[in-house]
């Protein structure tokens, strides 16, 4: 089961939230360099990842930020038969590659 949940209730530090927001902004603007830098600052990447892992991570972050982009038609539809279903499938396709090549565990803040 793969779940992307924008309604999780959990307390986060201001530092984490500020960094996560910068990462989402970088992903939303498709700024691969900033996306990589903020991912490293957050600890999602070490800086030693191979190109396959780096590309899969950045691609997934950019896809995840799609509903938040200024160019995305609002309200954004979620559910089967919507663009979100296609985005979720594309992110899901990256997961095996990320699991195989990741060099650091998922952030504590992003796990349940």
Mind explaining what this structure looks like?
The protein is mainly alpha-helical. It contains 4 helices and no strands. It has helices at residues 14-28, 32-42, 51-64, 83-101. The longest helix has 19 residues, at 83-101.
Features:
globular, 112 residues, mainly alpha
Order of helices and strands: HHHH
Helix content: 40-55%
* Radius of gyration over all CA atoms, rounded: 14 Å
Shape, principal axes of CA atoms: globular
TL;DR of this structure?
The protein is mainly α and 112 residues long.
Helix-strand layout with pairing:
Blueprint: H1 14-28, H2 32-42, H3 51-64, H4 83-101
């Amino acid at each position: 089961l793969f779940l992307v949940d924008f309604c999780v209730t959990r307390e986060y530090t201001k530092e984490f939230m500020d960094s996560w927001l910068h990462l989402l902004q970088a992903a939303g603007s498709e700024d691969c360099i900033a996306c990589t830098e903020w991912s490293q600052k957050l600890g999602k990447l070490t800086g030693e990842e191979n190109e396959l892992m780096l590309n899969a991570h950045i691609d997934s972050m950019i896809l995840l930020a799609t509903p938040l982009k200024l160019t995305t038609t609002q309200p954004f539809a979620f559910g089967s038969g919507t663009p979100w279903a296609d985005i979720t499938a594309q992110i899901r396709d990256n997961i095996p590659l990320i699991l195989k090549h990741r060099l650091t565990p998922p952030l504590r803040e992003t796990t349940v």
